[in-house]
Amino acid sequence: MESALLGAWQSPDKRLFSHADxxxxxxxxxxxxxxxxxxxxxxxxxxxxxxxxxALKRAIEWEIAKESPLEALLPVVEEFSSHTSLQRLLEELVxxxxxxxxxxxxxxxxxxxxxxxxxxxxxxxxxxxxxxWWPQRHPVKExxxxxxxxxxxxxxxxxxxxxxxxLADGGQExxxxxxxxxxxxxxxxxxxxxxxxxxxxxxATLRSGSAYRLDxxxxxxxxxxxxxxxxxxxxxxxxxxxxxxxxVATGDDQPQHIERRKLSTSEYLNGIRRVASALEASNPxx
Length: 286
Prior knowledge:
alpha+beta
């Protein structure tokens, strides 16, 4: 596969769902051959490094300085979201002698229904997060939204259905809310803005082994199947906005102000142990 939608890329022996007619979306394509070569280099780095976390940090620092950092980071997230590399990274964190206080302090039960585990933080330059949707979670409806930052993400376990949207005169009428994260309480606050019309331009299911990039201003939302363990590895780049946009169908309930609940140390460690065990059980190389 020479290029893929939304900058999505994966090695040729894996399959990425897609709508074939969507491959032509301008500005979102990347060169998979170059990514494959870099992926081979990263495999060597991570397998020979004494610390997977250090290898990941070096790889991100190298690629994020390039002219097109999101495109350059795609093979990084693809390599380190592989079952072998991520399992190694999680097991290193569990047995690490260094303090995990900073990582645990940035981890939480997210308002969108997943648990966020911070794995590497070089804030404000970049952060690496593991998003986990547990099978027994309470279903949460995700609104259309964008982000403060651009990112690349790899699907580690399960699958996610990804939808993107654009403003269009003939689209569905939706209310715009501007969301701010309060710096001290770290709670999400919403302020109602204008009314817009929005249309969908992509719907796709990405499975384990897929990777994609997303610009900060792209409107999107994802759906995750219930009753199944799903997880993604996300590399977040430097924030370039101080708020996000959330779109809600006119007439629907407005988003609620939500307090962010941090994970405790035991919740953090137990969570990444469970994911590491799931990776080992589903790894075809073991």
